[in-house]
Amino acid sequence: LGWVDDALDKIGKKRNIWVFTRHYQAALILGGQDNLIVTLPSKAAMQVSDDKRFAILEPPFDIPKMQLKMLWSPLLQHDPGHKWLRQTIKTVSDIG
User: Fold this and answer.
1) 8 Å CB contact between 29 and 22
2) Dihedrals φ, ψ of 50, to 5°?
3) b/e map of 25-56 (b: 16 or more CB within 10 Å)?
4) With contact defined as beta carbons under 8 Å apart, do 89 and 37 qualify?
5) pLDDT per residue over 37-94, tens digit each?
6) Which of 16, 15, 38 is nearest to 27 (CA)?
7) pLDDT tens, 3-20?
8) Measured in Å, how far apart are the chain's first and last C-alpha atoms?
């Protein structure tokens, strides 16, 4: 499965996965329609912070730091638009 399941296993817990999606918005829609627990980043969860159907809780384990890497074609190294996109991704990643 994934790092969430590894962390839960360390504290003797297990998820009963009913549905899986990589799309946060789809997870929120499904979670709002059924009695489900949705695991997603806090920034995505804040989209529904005012919605009474949802309760936003901290997980019962520490969340490890994630390391992200970017790769691109050498042909795009000096492209202004691509440089802007890489810098924007870096800036947003440094904020979180």
Assistant:
1) no
2) -95, -5
3) eebbeebeeeeeebebeeeebeebeeeeeeee
4) no
5) 888 888 888 888 999 989 999 999 988 887 878 999 999 999 999 999 999 998 888 7
6) 38
7) 889 999 999 999 998 888
8) 24
Q: What's the half-sphere exposure (Cβ side, CA atoms, 13 Å) at 7? A: 10
| Residue owning tokens 């991704």 | 89
Angle at the Cα of 27 from the Cα atoms of 92 and 96, rounded to 5 degrees: 15
Q: Which amino acid is at 89?
A: I
Domain residue spans of the chain: 1-64, 65-96
Torsion angles phi and psi, residue 81, rounded to 5: -65, -40
